[in-house]
Amino acid sequence: MKKALIVYSGGLDTTVCIPLMREQGFEEIVTLTVDVGQPEADVRQAADRAREMGCEHHVADVKEEFAAEYCAPAIAANADYFGYPLSTAIARPLIAKKAAEVAHAVGGVDAFVHGCTGKGNDQFRIEFGLRLFAPDIPILAPIREMNLTRTWEIDYAERVGAPIGQSKEKIWSIDENLWGRSIEGGRLEDPNYEPPEEIFQWTASLAAAPGEPETVEVEFRAGVPVRIGSVSGTPLQVIAEANSLAGKHGVGRIDIMEDRLIGLKVRENYECPGAVLLIAAHRALEALVTTHAERAFKAQVDAQWAELAYQGLWWDPFMEDLNAFIGQVQRRVSGTVRMRLFKGGMTVLGRDSDWALYSEAAASFDDTTSLEQSQMTGMVRTHGLESLLYARLVRRG
Amino acid sequence: MKKALIVYSGGLDTTVCIPLMREQGFEEIVTLTVDVGQPEADVRQAADRAREMGCEHHVADVKEEFAAEYCAPAIAANADYFGYPLSTAIARPLIAKKAAEVAHAVGGVDAFVHGCTGKGNDQFRIEFGLRLFAPDIPILAPIREMNLTRTWEIDYAERVGAPIGQSKEKIWSIDENLWGRSIEGGRLEDPNYEPPEEIFQWTASLAAAPGEPETVEVEFRAGVPVRIGSVSGTPLQVIAEANSLAGKHGVGRIDIMEDRLIGLKVRENYECPGAVLLIAAHRALEALVTTHAERAFKAQVDAQWAELAYQGLWWDPFMEDLNAFIGQVQRRVSGTVRMRLFKGGMTVLGRDSDWALYSEAAASFDDTTSLEQSQMTGMVRTHGLESLLYARLVRRG
Amino acid sequence: MKKALIVYSGGLDTTVCIPLMREQGFEEIVTLTVDVGQPEADVRQAADRAREMGCEHHVADVKEEFAAEYCAPAIAANADYFGYPLSTAIARPLIAKKAAEVAHAVGGVDAFVHGCTGKGNDQFRIEFGLRLFAPDIPILAPIREMNLTRTWEIDYAERVGAPIGQSKEKIWSIDENLWGRSIEGGRLEDPNYEPPEEIFQWTASLAAAPGEPETVEVEFRAGVPVRIGSVSGTPLQVIAEANSLAGKHGVGRIDIMEDRLIGLKVRENYECPGAVLLIAAHRALEALVTTHAERAFKAQVDAQWAELAYQGLWWDPFMEDLNAFIGQVQRRVSGTVRMRLFKGGMTVLGRDSDWALYSEAAASFDDTTSLEQSQMTGMVRTHGLESLLYARLVRRG
Amino acid sequence: MKKALIVYSGGLDTTVCIPLMREQGFEEIVTLTVDVGQPEADVRQAADRAREMGCEHHVADVKEEFAAEYCAPAIAANADYFGYPLSTAIARPLIAKKAAEVAHAVGGVDAFVHGCTGKGNDQFRIEFGLRLFAPDIPILAPIREMNLTRTWEIDYAERVGAPIGQSKEKIWSIDENLWGRSIEGGRLEDPNYEPPEEIFQWTASLAAAPGEPETVEVEFRAGVPVRIGSVSGTPLQVIAEANSLAGKHGVGRIDIMEDRLIGLKVRENYECPGAVLLIAAHRALEALVTTHAERAFKAQVDAQWAELAYQGLWWDPFMEDLNAFIGQVQRRVSGTVRMRLFKGGMTVLGRDSDWALYSEAAASFDDTTSLEQSQMTGMVRTHGLESLLYARLVRRG
Questions:
Q1: Ordered strands of the D253-259 beta sheet
Q2: Helix A292-311 and helix A317-330: axis angle, to 10°?
Q3: Mutate which of B262, B375, B383, B396 to disrupt the D interface (most D C-beta within 10 Å)?
Q4: CA distance C134 to C147
């Protein structure tokens, strides 16, 4: 008797996989929904459908782990893939890891099954994690491998009586977790189409956002947000509050051009209110405590981190190296940042840290080194020495 | 009879230089004010004071040149020194160049004089330009070399009857040009002090900004903005309109930590409405027409450009190399971007270009190459091959 | 009647393609051998075999074009993919381009055919070029798509009477062109296996190399080598002479770990005597004429160039951008470099250029700026200001 | 009674400082020679001269500390400042640190004194270290501040009877420590002057080097060399043996253009046999155990490390970040590398590590993932997708 473990969201693609796998001889179907902060209704619907179809259903609530071990490092790295805070991207490795854990716990799993298509990024992220944590279990991706279309899937589901709800009217493809929400598909792909207000659920419209600005203080310890306003707590609690606060003011809508792993350029819309708020505050604090060269180079380290995270290579040795660099910087990223939220915009009003490399004394040259401004003449005169030599050569003709 | 050319703003520091130079035996004083878009009243006041003090006064109106040859390249490079669009920085080289031209035209100049202190960046920028274009003329910087303080300067000005106006009450140090406005000094240096509303003059307060969003279209040709809304024209005209539009909506206030050339970290406030608007639009268009690797690397090229521009090394050979790269990219940066301005915030609503690397056909795999999603399996399976090998080694223990 | 154009080397893989294509219904077979400087015997053998098998055979001698348009830019970019001067990599795009040209000239070609396997890099390089220059012609890769093995191919060739010579004894897989020679396969893949002397043909063994050092002068104009020793001429002539000279002294053997496009790490052996000599000389000259920041950043530009060249993305827009940067630098890379060759080693003995940023006067501070060393105190005192502040914070505990 | 501590090498510049400081009222002179591996005769001569002149002389033997805490990290970072393994640069911070320690131990020191001129790099490196570890003690640099010339110094030394030996005939300026030897000055500054054989003392001439190649195995544990040939031991012992072995074969001569901290380009000659050998072996091992992206980026991390080390900013927080990255990579840099040394040249013959990311199985696709080459078609077809789109736009005209 063959057993398949389906990484199950409850949506059309993964629901269709259940009868498909049965047709391929997998009599036992284990479904797993990993709760990374998607709407509770989605988690419940997945459980209902899985049980309705006679699967052994598992739910793994990893919200705390996701916040502490995935979102917090993303803040430390100022997660930014060309404007995208990597919300879906950093959840996939954890989902794959949990799937491998459940497969080992359940035992006897002959195949993993996921519902990704062949055009997206998630196939790379999920399969990498599965292959890493359960290298001996084959992976099946029926939607991709059978070249299925949405229409075929809906017809098939109706034919076999799989519960897919009102999916036919669905226009947008949504993915949600604690770190953000992505809305794709249809006309949204056109880079010049203005996204309709209806696609947003976490962030208030400009009209609906409060008419008064709100100032909020974010506190970090060693790069981790430990308090926002009056809410102190775990990363999960702070991120949830950040989502709520920033979302209320319409902060966190993202509309960008993105380059997918297979080389396609696409337009993407996200709403990541908490991520946008917390990363902006984190950046402001880092700017206060890092040296000039350190700050300039960390931008490159962060860019590499974002590339790896986008690719889902969460356990790559290079990721460990980057995290070692980033972690060393974070030791000093403690302090507070005051932000003003208003009508979709956000401003840093002030920042404070015991590790600030700002010194009133140094800034005013009133220092133990008793530096006098007259001593700077030599430095000014040597500024651009090689450039001046070059200019002389150019003039020479 | 010795002759000095003073790079003259009409402010305290440079006004004090006039009698100081006379005391040092410079009987003839030529003053030069370079009009890069500062308030007309400032240009007039400088002329009045210079003439009152018996100087041969020159005014060079370089606004068109500044917009076309300095601001436009800054847009192409997405000018960004840790958040600062380099407004003061890119004007200094042009001021120095004009000073050298005037010195050569006037003839017989024995010394350049500028009013920079020994703590700032402008001494590096100005002297580099002067030395480059007029290497044979010595440069004097009395404020720096004589270690003068503001109090001493005011007392001295009163003693010798130099016209310095109400300078004693002046709290902020302001620099203005077409590309932006900087406000420094006093309590503003404290990173945690919230800047008072009064320091801003180009950008509306959140309260005063219009209650309705405004959508504006920006058009670029080969990286140069040629139209904003209904205003087409030279870079000067487009930038002026951008300042006006973005300023009206309170867009363009900048509050950052900055690392000065001598190694000091300081807090800086700027308002650069036009720069912020035009660079955001330019970035959005570049994202549409560049490949993934190109885009990632141009961020590094731009960062190097910003470092050189901040240092004032405008004619460095490296700057020419970077501009060659940037210019090659710009050939395709033609098209339009729609932006929404509202209450200090700004959103990209859409972008369009004949050079877009977005293709509806490619995105839907409906292509002459007739790529099927089932063919992607191999790519997914090789994703992270070296990482997987590494994980195997780690597990081996 | 269907027509196929085979990119034909005359080796086993491509020879087998001829009958295979016939079996798939391609009655007309056009073969093309592109002469990029491989041994003349190979070019002749390919022609003989193609004609023996009744193909319409074409030879394109592109050696001058290859040297001027592919090798010369590689010198300007100091071509270096982790030690590999990209000899095979930069020939593939040109081969694909010629194949597309011949296909258009011949007319009626229904398919391109190449002999690459699914593990190597050349499939990516060749297909990219074909698809770019002839997007409407499908590409077939029978060895990859039919999952053929070497043994199967040999048996098949014997069965159908295809002329493959003594191929069964062949141990190493060789690729040769003007820019270098690669030797792969068998035990050579083991990173710890010492390559036997017999694999090398272009470079003398340490024992056989002359007992006396030889000094040679290389002259560049705008980054292009125009003379080596007494041989002036086209890039082709200079590279040929460089291969001969460096090879005689055993210079140019390369033994590295390389990361292939599909993510495999492999050990590779090359001999690229001319490339190694010319690039070393070019680097030495660049070091003389570039500023510090320019030189440091060009290393990154060159690294990006090498990545793209390795991937075969010769006509990528990013490649054009990089070449714009590199070309701007090359304007000054004129002058001579003296190198000593001896027993597999190479040393720069001197370099000279009208664009040298070295100035005896500046180096001795004996300059028009009359800089005195006592003026440097201020610069020294501000060195590492932010670091010192950091140290003070650390000590504070 | 004022007390000065002179960082004392025994050479002309620092010897002259002794009477100069006495003239400035420092009655007590403490001299310190830090033994970082310079010739024993130099250490002895310094002691003799210091005592002859009535100073309280100290010697700090820090060779083991220098090897383990400064040279070993340099190996991990593949220390390379445009060809220079940073031999003098990494010794200066340690010398300054020891000077601060001695000053604190001795007590009552009113000033540090060093003999650096205003044109070199060492003034930056030494003063940074002194200021960091003893911020309250002023620093005097009489040669720089009094603008002294060599001739003046010699005359003065003779006048006051300071023991300076035959210094007048000295042509080259030498600096030596365990990690290498630099030779500067006179005609050597001319980039086109071939250095005479006489300047080299650690490396055999091509003629004098053995007529037979020698193969040597270097073993690393976590990035640290622990054995070379048959010599196992501390970093000091391994580096000493590497100097001896490589020097015997004439390996390690370096002739480069270098950009000094004040912006001057100069020609420099070094001989660093051990450094060159150990770093080449270390690089070869890193290439075996790192992923492609990791390896490409570590080159940038190493370049930043080299910049900071060149500047002497050994305790900069950015240096700590870089070392965290580098240290994470080093965990896997364990294994052996076989190198052949011969007549000034060096070749890697093989490398082996338990952490090799090379797998015979993966390389031959004979893997648990049972990847077939036919599955690679999709990856090949998507290769350069955006480039192809670009090409289509270009053709469109």
A1: D173-177, D180-184, D265-271, D253-259
A2: 140
A3: B375
A4: 26
Q: Is C300 a residue whose pLDDT tops 90?
A: yes
Instruction: Measure CB to CB from residue D303 to each of C131, C299, C316 and give the nearest one.
Output: C299
Interface test with C, best of A328, A390, A395 (most C CBs within 10 A): A390
Q: Give the residue from A85, A95, A101 showing the smallest Cα distance to A33.
A: A95
Q: Which tokens belong to D358?
A: 């090379």
Cα dihedral value A351, A352, A356, A361, nearest 10: 100
Count of Cβ atoms closer than 10 Å to residue B340 Cβ = 17
**Option in D376, D381, D393 nearest B371 (CB):** D381
Q: Tell me the shortest Cα–Cα distance from A134 to chain D, in angstroms.
A: 11
DSSP A110: -
- Hunting for tokens 């630098």 — which residue is that? C329
- Region for D226 from its dihedrals, namely left if φ exceeds 0, alpha if ψ lies in -120 to 50, beta otherwise: alpha
Q: How do residues D212-228 score in pLDDT, each as one tens digit?
A: 999 999 999 999 999 99
The partner residues of D146 in beta bridges, in order of sequence, read none
> B180 with B271: CB under 8 angstroms?
yes
ipTM: 0.96
Q: What secondary structure letter does DSSP report for C194?
A: P
Among chain B residues, the shortest Cα distance to D293 is held by B386
Angle at the Cα of B22 from the Cα atoms of B17 and B24, rounded to 5 degrees:
95
**Helix (H, G, I), strand (E, B), or coil: what is residue A223?**
coil
The DSSP annotation for B3-26 comes to EEEEE--SSHHHHHHHHHHHHTTE
The pLDDT tens digits of the residues spanning A49-103 come to 999 999 999 999 999 999 999 999 999 999 999 999 999 999 999 999 999 999 9
Query: Count of H helices and E strands in chain C?
Result: 15, 14
What global pTM score does this model have?
Answer: 0.97
CB D206 within 8 Å of CB D197: no
For residue C117, list chain D residues with Cβ-Cβ distance below 8 A: 373
CA A179 → CA A35, A71, A327, B128, distances in Å?
12, 7, 20, 48
Domains in chain D, CATH or no CATH each: 2-63+85-171 (3.40.50.620), 175-352 (3.90.1260.10)
Residues C229 and C210: their CA atoms lie apart, in Å, by 17
Are D321 and A294 an interchain contact pair (Cβ–Cβ within 8 Å)? yes
Cα B233 to Cα B77, B219, B220: the distances in Å are 21, 11, 11
Pairing of strands B345-352, B335-342: antiparallel
- For tokens 């309590």, name the residue: B187
Q: How does pLDDT run across C331-379, given as a tens digit for each residue? A: 999 999 999 999 999 999 999 999 999 987 766 654 434 567 888 889 9
The answer on pLDDT for B369 being more than 60 is: no
User: Do the beta carbons of residue D334 and residue A330 sit within 8 Å?
Assistant: no
Per residue in A374-396, pLDDT (tens digit) is 888 899 999 999 999 999 999 98
Nearest to A381 by CA among C189, C72, C6, C376: C376
Distance CA B38, CA B36 (A): 6
How far is residue A258's CA from residue A236's CA, in Å, rounded to a whole number? 28
Among all chains, which residue has been given the structure tokens 């620093």?
Answer: D139
Sheet with C253-259, side-by-side order of all strands: C173-177, C180-184, C265-271, C253-259
Mean pLDDT across the stretch B238-250?
A: 98
Cβ proximity of C318 and C304 under 8 Å: yes
State how far the Cα of B277 lies from the Cα of B217, in Å rounded to an integer.
11
| D72 CA: distance to closest CA in chain B (Å) | 25
* pLDDT on residue B297: 98
Structure tokens at D344: 């000034």
CA distance D95 to C90: 49
Contacts of B386 in chain C (CB under 8 A): 259, 263, 265
